[in-house]
Specification:
293 residues, alpha+beta, Muramoyl-pentapeptide Carboxypeptidase, domain 2, four-stranded antiparallel β-sheet, three-stranded mixed β-sheet, 43% helix, elongated, binds zinc ion
């Protein structure tokens, strides 16, 4: 029996020794963990980071103060070019002199909805590459899409009223427009030219998308066109063919032009219908109305 108790005693002592050794190792390991370098390394770096930031900030601020445009932002589109005015701002009865306006240069991409007016100019060499001579137009030309729409509108007008339309003036070159504006200014007056004639580069006729029309059989541009049965029909139905009556009296402040009963502009059926339904000028649509002083 005493041998048996002796064996138990030995096992108990061995177990206690193991427990003690484990406890001692655990305490030692914990004491080491407090001295592990990783946490402290970060803690040491953080203040020096802050220090670096603190010293960098004033440097940047100083640089910004002296050269405010040293951080250019990426621009999605190229900076526009302009045709600078050749005289001081000038107005005649609410119509600006186009020569006194800084006009942004427009580079058409083939779209039929492009805005050209006193403030948006084409370059001297711009000419559409798809001009064609429609029927019922003498020698006049329009861009192909506008020409096809014009012919369709002619047919519908003829069927509805018994009389067709006639294209007096379609595409006009920069140089022809220059002749027309100069002649109007010299023969009529500068005030008249400013409300009725586009300056060279600023005419939708150079786009090949504008047309001056009369009832078939006449070759005269007339204020009375809107009073004729043909004029009334065209006014009411032109949007169905993609045209708008571009310069209407109630929009003079917006467009910069007086009422023109004979001048129509092709913009495509979708936009023409939208503008007609909303009784809106092209300038108002683009939020680019003439700005009076
Ligand atoms: Zn015209």
């Amino acid at each position: 029996m005493s041998k048996k108790y002796g064996r138990y005693f030995t096992r108990l002592v061995t177990l206690l020794c193991l427990l003690f050794a484990t406890a001692v190792f655990t305490i030692y390991a914990n004491s080491l963990q407090g001295k592990l370098p990783s946490g402290n390394v970060k803690a040491d770096v953080m203040p020096s980071d802050q220090l670096a930031t603190e010293t960098t900030v004033p440097t940047t601020a100083t640089a910004t103060e002296t050269t405010p445009e040293t951080t250019p932002e990426p621009t999605p589109t190229p900076e526009p070019d302009y045709v600078e005015p050749i005289m001081k701002e000038a107005w005649y009865n609410g119509y600006s002199d186009p020569r006194s306006v800084r006009a942004e240069i427009v580079v058409p991409d083939g779209s039929v909805t492009v805005l050209v007016n006193k403030y948006y100019t084409l370059t001297e060499d711009y000419e559409p590459d798809d001009l064609v001579n429609p029927k019922h137009a003498g020698e006049q030309k329009l861009r192909k899409e506008a020409a096809e729409a014009y012919e369709k509108m002619y047919d519908a007008c003829k069927e509805a009223t018994g009389q067709g339309i006639y294209l007096i003036s379609g595409y006009r070159s920069f140089s022809l427009q220059k002749t027309l504006f100069t002649r109007s200014m010299n023969k009529r007056s500068l005030a008249f030219a400013c409300k009725r004639n586009a300056y060279q580069g600023r005419s939708e006729h150079q786009l090949g998308l504008a047309m001056d029309i009369s009832p078939e059989g006449s070759t005269v541009i007339s204020d009375d066109f809107g009073k004729t049965k043909v004029g009334k029909w065209v006014d009411e139905h032109c949007h169905e063919y993609g045209f708008i009556r571009r310069f209407q009296g109630q929009w003079s402040d917006e467009t910069g032009y007086d009422n023109e009963a004979w001048h129509y502009r092709y913009v495509g059926v979708e936009l023409a219908t939208y503008l007609t339904e909303h009784d809106m000028s092209l300038e108002a649509y683009y939020d680019k109305c003439q700005v009076k002083p």
